[in-house]
Amino acid sequence: MTQIYVSFYNITITKASGLKMDLQHLLTIPILSKAKVIAGHHGLNRLVQSINIMDAPDIVQFLKPGDMLLTNGYILKDRPDAHLAFITDMHAIGCAALAIKTQRFSFELSPQLLETADKLGFPIIELSEIDNTLGEIFQHSISSILQNKTHELHYALSIHKQFSTMVMQGKGIPSIVDTLSQLLSSPVLLLDSKKQITAISHHAQHIDPYSLAEPILTFIHEYPSFQIASSICLLNTDKYRHIELHPIFTDRHEGYLIALYDSSAASKLSSLALEQAVNVIGLELTKKQAVKERSRRYKNEYFSDLIQGFFRSEQEALHRGKKYGLKAQESSVLILAKMDESLAARPNPNLAPIKEERYISERDAYYELIKQAFARLNLTFVMFTKNDQFGILVFLGESSWDEQTVVQQLEKLASNLYTDSQLSVSFGIGNPYTNVLDIGLSYKEAVKALQSGYQLKKTRFVHSYQTMDISRLLRMIPYDEILQFHQETFKPFAGRDSNERSELMKTLSSFYENHCQIGDTAKELYVHRNTVIYRLEKCEKLTGRNIKDPMESLRFRLAFALESVLNANPSPNEAPHTF
Questions:
Q1: Can you spell out the DSSP letters for 57-103?
Q2: What CA–CA distance (Å, rounded) separates 267 from 518?
Q3: What tens digit of pLDDT does each residue of 31-44 get?
Q4: pLDDT tens, position by position, 9-32
């Protein structure tokens, strides 16, 4: 098979070829001991897939890549002008070599032809000193190739059985990596789909696998569609320059198995061992994925039944939910995470099965990303999926529920998910509960909190049910009444310059958000506390109201809260107030 070389910074990539017998190996069999290579010596690494002894003027059109043509020269003896084209055509097809008995019909190959064969690296082999017939040479050559294939097949079956036995004995993938390393006498690394090292052989523990893996990761990043086994040569490394890289696939891409060689590339049997390891690891990952998906399905069904109230008693619910961490008389709170766009419209599985599979795969990938991000928070939780929502049940234990801190953590989490993975996620938070059967109520509250944010045209938001309640109450008031109340409250600011009006209203809003604390307001606005006092006094002078009076404070707070309602539902004739 033709090798493909791609220049890549400090990496040379060679496409892995099939395991065939190369020409140099074939020439070592006894019947070819007197064969002489008279041209094209650089092509002796060509792979021989089959032997052809047909003699016909149009033989070229019947040849295939990897063929070695045996001939007595009859097809060439009366066509000296066609010799050069014949060799060139065979090379273009990808044939392995031309083996010829020139003395059978007493003709010579021209120096120009031999020179061309040398330039092309196309081997020409002289068979005249061999007493055996072409038929005998054909039989012995084919027999040698088949024996080589049989040996490779037995070796592959033996290695596959060894690795499979290890899996059945419960030794796991790390043991396969270690055993493979011993077979190859070289370090072996296993990367997952996120390009993280998940297993490393003992043979490689004396080296730094992360620095060694860096150029390999660069290659994978540069060639994301890379799906074939390849040999990589690191040009700027003295040790372990040659690397065999095998991608692992199940129904999706699972990662890479990597073997490192000190001075030379892998042998055929080494490549066979790598292939069998990849096959067995793929099967093991498929089994683990099936177990994981089944376990997750049971968990999703349990929480769906619990939310819909299908359990007759708390005792029954706790008995089945024990393995998920549910305990009697333990306070919990349900948080719902939802993709803002990608999973908004679920395809109909009856009409589009391929789209449904893509939807499930995408949802599972998002599930893992959100779970990993949530695991970094100092919370004990269990996660499940319900339709296009991800439920995160947080166990409070003996600690009190600090909603404000959790909201801030979730806001940061949503921002990081969008920055790092381009995932736009919003969160709805229900109220805490103690009786496990009340999870359905907390779920409804979290759904309403999500709906509230989406009604306000928000994305990457965090809404709690309490916040949603006020917003819903305000939206129940007729729009004209809301607009009139808002305008009358802030009418004293209308006559001021736009910059001054914005400055005063921001100060007043921040003052109330910081519980009427001058110092905290100054910090939030990055101004001196005297500046805050001056602005608040000016607000009192303009409005004629004592801004610290409880009733006046309530009036201003409501007016500021109405901003989101007015912006979400603008009147055709009125533009919403902004500051």
A1: TTGGGG--TTEEEEE-SHHHHT-GGGHHHHHHHHHHHT--EEEE-GG
A2: 76
A3: 999 999 999 999 99
A4: 444 444 444 446 889 999 999 999
Q: Do 294 and 357 form a contact (C-beta atoms < 8 A)?
A: no
How far apart CA 373 and CA 366 sit, in angstroms, is 11
| Burial state string for 207-238 with b = 16 or more CB within 10 A and e = fewer than 16 | eebeebbebbeebbeeeeebeebbbbbbeeee
Q: Give the number of other CB atoms < 10 A from CB of residue 382.
A: 18
Locus of tokens 């539902």 = 569
Q: What percent of the chain has pLDDT over 70?
A: 85
Q: Residue 339: which of 258, 271, 422, 274 has the closest Cα?
A: 422
Residue reference for tokens 């040996």: 151
* Cα separation, 15 vs 4, whole angstroms: 5
Q: How many residues does the chain have?
A: 579
Q: Is the dihedral of CA 164, 170, 175, 179 positive or negative?
A: negative
Interstrand relation of 380-386 and 21-22 (parallel, antiparallel or unpaired): unpaired
Half-sphere exposure of 388 (CA within 13 A, CB side): 16
Tell me which residue of 225, 436, 412, 426 sits closest to 338, measured CA to CA. Answer: 426
